[in-house]
Design goal:
The protein is mostly helical. Helices cover 72% and strands 2% of the residues. Helix 10 runs antiparallel to helix 11. It is globular and about 55 Å long.
């Protein structure tokens, strides 16, 4: 019970800090919308995907995934911030299991990222995607799981970094390649050999593919399978994509718990 209360308090603190920071809330929405407007609206007439789907509709699920990824990964910055101000030491000496600290931080970051992804999801009708209740109920659990996985990744990395500047450097070094090599902005079929390998090794690719697959399955005029990942000659389903994401997430959560457990 004590550990569950510890998870709740850490989760509540991170969510409350985000809710009170209105500038952060606006900024978190600005970048995905910029990509959607500039790339989606600007390139739709020039990009032919060979399917009855516009480039904006293709990219929209990727923009949601990108927003969730960046927001959940950024949750790790609170670890660095708390360390610099001495709060992390107080948390780690509290009479709760350090796994509860990792769990609370992961859930806090995932909740914030899911809220941001859901806000962008509500803009679907603006680009011609019908937003049915069944689609929303299908997407929110996928978004939350993806957010948990990459929130745990951010916490694992942040727990080993001593400064805000160092975390920002690592974030940019990891996030940009992971985003651009995950199929956010282009189909992952017919890529050059080396790039196809990198895309399939990138765990973000499977999260993006799951979100996009759920979207495209709601469009009867589109063959959703034409944009899915192919692994060892097998065309991946949304469920199989999520199984890979969850497997990676279990590893990241275990590493996050271990990393915090050896903190001094």
């Amino acid at each position: 019970m004590r550990n569950l209360r510890g998870v709740y308090i850490i989760w509540y603190r991170d969510v409350l800090r985000f809710w009170r920071d209105k500038l952060r809330m606006v900024g978190a929405m600005a970048l995905p919308l910029l990509f959607l407007v500039v790339f989606g609206a600007g390139l739709t007439k020039w990009v032919d995907l060979g399917e009855d789907v516009s480039f904006a509709k293709f990219m929209f699920p990727g923009v949601i995934g990108m927003s969730v990824l960046m927001s959940s990964f950024m949750s790790g910055v609170s670890i660095v911030w708390d360390r610099e101000f001495g709060f992390l030491k107080e948390v780690l000496v509290a009479p709760v299991n350090r796994a509860a600290v990792a769990g609370g931080k992961t859930l806090g970051g995932a909740t914030i990222a899911t809220a941001q992804g859901t806000l962008i999801l509500l803009l679907s009708p603006l680009i011609g995607i019908d937003l049915s209740p069944s689609l929303v109920l299908k997407l929110i659990p996928i978004i939350f799981l993806v957010a948990c996985v990459f929130g745990a990744l951010g916490i694992t990395i942040a727990s080993r970094i001593k400064s805000m500047e160092g975390f920002q450097v690592v974030m940019n070094m990891l996030m940009m390649p992971m985003i651009f090599l995950s199929g956010v902005f282009f189909p992952v079929s017919d890529l050059p050999g080396w790039m196809s390998v990198v895309v399939k090794l990138n765990p973000v690719s499977y999260g993006i593919a799951a979100i996009r697959g759920a979207f495209l399955q709601s469009m009867p005029e589109v063959d959703a399978g034409s944009f899915s990942l192919v692994l060892f000659g097998h065309q991946m389903s949304v469920l199989e994509d999520m199984l890979i994401v969850v497997s990676f997430g279990v590893l990241m959560i275990v590493l996050a718990m271990w990393s915090l457990s050896v903190q001094e």
